[in-house]
Amino acid sequence: MLERLDTIDWANISTCYGCASEIPVAIRELWSEDRDARDIALGTIRHMLENQGYICEAAPLAVPFLLEVLANSAFQEKHLLVDFLTYLCSLPRYGETYLMLDQRVELQKRNEGRKRIPPGLRDVERERAEETHRALRAGLPIFCSLLSDSDPLIRELAAFLLAAFPADSSRLLEPVMRLLQVEKDEYARCSLLLCLGHLQEPLPEVSQLLLSTLDHAETPLLHYAAARALCLLLKEQAPEKAIDLFCQALIHPRFSWRPAYKPCYSPWSIEDTHTLALLSLDQLLTSPHRTRVIERLSEVYFLVEEDSDEACADLLLRVAFYEEGVPANSDGEGSDAPYSSIAFNNLTHLQQTILRLLADRESLWNKPNLDFDPFSGIEIEKPDPVSLKPLAYLELPSTRQSLRTFLHL
Length: 409
Hints:
409 residues, mainly alpha, 3 domains, 6 strands
């Protein structure tokens, strides 16, 4: 086993932190009888092959050996290795998250700045990611076999891992759908449902299975996973019931639908239902769902959990203002000066309604107004009134008092 490991000149291969000489040592250490040594070895592999979404030169070369380790039934840390491969293979999908308006503007600026990066460097980054994905694709038979593993966490991770290979949906749909019929673990079932959505194959039998689950699932989390999968699969053709479910998710306590914390990097341990609900609503803001999303979110806004009220306000503001052509402030700073460019009477009924919703939401303005003190290294409360960033970026009154004055309240 691992006979070819020494055929690679690891000393002349780069990782995220220097040369790759430690990689073959760490891979062999995965077979140590000492559990601490195995954990350290896997930590070294994770640390050196990937850093904040950047995949190094050594990653595609190391993947075949990691697959060889994973395929051996005697390997004792299978769940941790599957966890890492799931993350490594799914980086683009983990980038799918709801972005606040100010984050969108900053990201747009950064993307414009990236145009100055030499094209050759971008090509190298893309090529490494593609090479790593191709190397992981060779492990599809192994990943499919893990769908029947005795450990439900491994089954859950394997299903989410398979979702990174939509080009192979024709060979993956059958085992995923078959195992979904017999799977009993709630998390694993959720992951299988999400896998169907990510595989992007809207066959009638796939859509029907997800629609049936949406109507007849036994738990709120399964309902939610089916709705999320339908959103991914059918996009604007997703059923209106999914919108209602996402809005209902926002008024439930965060994590309330999940029975236990999951320690590994699975789709249900890194993302809470509120974040994914906002992402789903954001993705459904296309005809014919746009009006329905705004109406339903406005209806439930006063019931939304406090830790999500600003993000919900951001979504409402972005649709009503930013996407209708109101420009974002170039420097991201709002002002409480008179608003000569935006007159209250020129706002649409929807815009006026949303601003009134925000002005009336007590919790939106009662949050601590914190700033980071570089000298003490801690956050301190600022004496200034709370300012809402999305309003500032839209050049609207960004404190509660100035907003109420603007609205003649």
